[in-house]
Amino acid sequence: MSITGKSCSLNDLRQRFTKAFCDMVRGSTVAWGGPRMTVCLFWVPAMTPECQLFGTLGCHLCEVAEGELMPFVEHGLLVELVDIAENQALFEAYGLRIPVLRRIDTGAELNWPFDSDQVAAFLR
Question: Against a cut of 0.70, is the pTM above it?
Answer without folding.
Answer: no
